[in-house]
Amino acid sequence: MLKCENLCKSYGGISAVSGVNLYIKQGESVGLIGSNGAGKTSLFNLLAGFEKPDKGEIFLIRGGEKTKLNGLPPHARIKFGIGRTFQNLRLFKDMSVHENILAGALGNGQNPDCCLHLLEELGLFPLKDAKAGSLPYGSRKTVEIARSLASGAKLLLLDEPAAGLSETEALYLAGKLKKLRQEKNLTLLLIEHNMDFICGLCDRLYAMDSGRIVAEGRPRSVLHSPAVIDTVFGGAPYVFA
Amino acid sequence: MKNKNSRKAFRNIAPVCLTAGIAALVFGRGAYGAQLVCRMLISASMAAGLDIFAGLGQLSLGHAVFAAAGAYSCALISARTAGSSGIAAGLAAGTAAAVLLALVSGFALLKLRGDYLALASLGLCETGRVFMENTDFIGGAAGLYGIPKFAGPLNTFVLFCFCATVCAVFNGSKSGFISRVVAQDEEAASSIGIDVRRVKIAAFTLSACITALAGGFYGGIFGFISPRDFGCARSVDMLLAVIVGGAGTVGGPMLAAMLTEAFFAFFPSAAEPRMIIYALALIFLTIARRRRVAENGL
Ligand SMILES: Nc1ncnc2c1ncn2[C@@H]1O[C@H](COP(=O)(O)OP(=O)(O)OP(=O)(O)O)[C@@H](O)[C@H]1O
Ligand SMILES: [Mg+2]
After folding, report:
1. CA A135 distance to own-chain centroid
2. pLDDT tens for residues B95-136?
């Protein structure tokens, strides 16, 4: 569904993303791990159109048809179904939960009727009239996902969806995402530091360090690869809970 | 949802239209009273125009230019074409000129936001003043005379209600909702498919149109306009009305603009230290809404 080739981006002297090749198949759920500052969010910004790559290409592949996305702004990429959430939550704080989701639908010309359905499905219905800024952290994250879905996202880029959630909240969210993925035939790319969360949800992982992809493959094999143990876990192999 | 929004918008403007009507009836007698009412209602209409743009969470100090575009276009045409058709053509031309000016200047200005935009728009305002003062064709610094004095309490009241209605309809519409979304967070808005730049240019243009229409009437009060009527002070007047009245509420800014005009008419000696009074008002307002200002700007 999405493919990028030799993607590079540097900020001043720091090369945040350098030579990244990545592909995501339709319906797949792919995880992206890496230590702090590895360049994961920077890669998301390139994929969603928030930053322009210095070098490299991004393609959308649908039914054998290849569309180059370079140069398209974010609001044009969501027309192709590429939606995202933000690491540091960017809700319309003074608006109600319902209005946030409605904004998603109206912003991309979707039928506003989908909003109530999404509210129900994500367990947000009782909160629909509450101000988004006043919600507990976990619910705010869910609202952001709902907003992106309302805008018609088919490939959802989730930047640390489980960060700051309690263990039960993370499990609940993982369950919801699994269900949504099946029902709406979603494709997921998610950044996470919570390895249990990501392994329960993803078919495949990429690991990044200093802007480069250092490992790729099935979740367990990636987590046990020497490069990942070295760069992501600081030498000690990851032990599952 | 949509109906709820539009009803709320109308509830915002109904009281202010009523107030304006009563003010027109009470003060609108005699030449001086009529002029005062016209000034109040026209200032309020200009502020309503700016309020549409302020609803995006941005401040413009350049709107005097649009008022000037409206006033000068209308003055030039209505002074040459007799009768109400000349006035109508003048108002239409003024609005069209403002659209053109807003599209061109908005294209450049709206790349900026926040303080940078406010300062750059102040530059637009100054450019406008220098242009007016140095263009003989429109009377230069001496201004333009001989404009038909068509503005009276009745037609400015109609203007007032028209501007208020346009703003209320806009706020209650999908476009108004999208503007409020953009005001909350531009990046998030673009992530859900909103073309932020287009929304901003559209709102800027509509806002310029309304201000220009009101500007067209301004020349019809005294039959005379000069660059001094459309300097930075005019922009500041409008902006303060919007800030004091509550950006994005339509009724608030319109009421604030009317009251300011009336205040300076009844206390003419206060007009001299006007800027001091404004500064004090801003300081008190900032203190009173300290928390809100810290979170959202004024
Ligand atoms: N807009 C920017 N300007 C300058 N430097 C930036 C910018 N965005 C990212 N960087 C730098 O690029 C590098 C990668 O940052 P990025 O946010 O992508 O990391 P990350 O993998 O998402 O980390 P985390 O797990 O902490 O979220 C960092 O060194 C960061 O300081
Ligand atoms: Mg990050």
Report:
1. 21
2. 999 999 999 999 999 999 888 998 999 999 999 999 999 999
Q: How many CA atoms lie within 13 A of A114 on its CB side?
A: 20
Q: Closest residue (by CA) to atom 19 of ligand 1?
A: A37
Distances from the Cα of A136 to the Cα of A99, A119, A143, A165, B200, angstroms: 17, 16, 11, 10, 32
Centre a 10 Å sphere on the Cβ of residue A8 and count the other Cβ atoms it contains: 16
B2-266 folds as ABC transporter involved in vitamin B12 uptake, BtuC (1.10.3470)
- What does the alpha-carbon distance between residue B238 and residue A93 come to, in Å, rounded to a whole number? 28
How does pLDDT run across A188-215, given as a tens digit for each residue?
Answer: 999 999 998 998 899 999 999 999 999 9
Read off the pTM. Answer: 0.90
Contact (CB, 8 A) for A205 and A31: yes
Q: What residue type is B296 in one-letter code?
A: N
Tell whether ligand 1 has an atom less than 6 A from the beta carbon of residue A211.
Answer: no
Q: Where are the alpha helices (DSSP H) in chain A?
A: 40-48, 74-77, 97-107, 114-121, 137-150, 167-184, 195-201, 219-223, 226-231
CB contacts, 8 Å: A50 with chain B? 187, 191
ipTM of the complex: 0.90
B155 alpha carbon, distance to own chain's centre = 17
Let me know if B126 is exposed, middle or buried by CB neighbors in 10 A (0-12, 13-18, 19+). middle
Determine the atom of ligand 1 nearest the C-alpha atom of A211: 14
**CB B34, CB B28: distance < 8 Å:** yes
Query: Do residues A4 and A57 lie in contact, with contact meaning Cβ atoms separated by under 8 Å?
Result: yes
Kind plus residue range of the DSSP H or E element containing B98: helix B83-109
A158 token code pair? 């989730």
Picking from B174, B184, B296, the nearest residue to A95 by CB comes out as B184
Give the residue, by CA position, lying nearest to ligand 1 atom 1. Answer: A11
Burial class (CB in 10 A: 0-12, 13-18, 19+), A59: middle
Domains of chain B: which residue ranges?
2-266
Q: How far is A27 from chain B (nearest CA, A)?
A: 21
Ligand with minimal distance to A35 CA = 1
Any B CB within 8 A of A215 CB: no
Instruction: Tell me if chain B has a CB within 8 Å of the CB of A151.
Output: yes
Torsion of CA A197, A201, A206, A209, to 10 degrees: -10
CB of A168 closer than 6 angstroms to any ligand 1 atom: no
What is the nearest CA distance from A234 to chain B, expressed in angstroms? Answer: 34
3-state secondary structure at position B111: coil
Q: Chain B residues contacting A, CB < 8 Å?
A: 1, 174, 177-178, 180-181, 184-185, 187-196, 296
Beta strands A204-209 and A65-68: pairing type?
unpaired
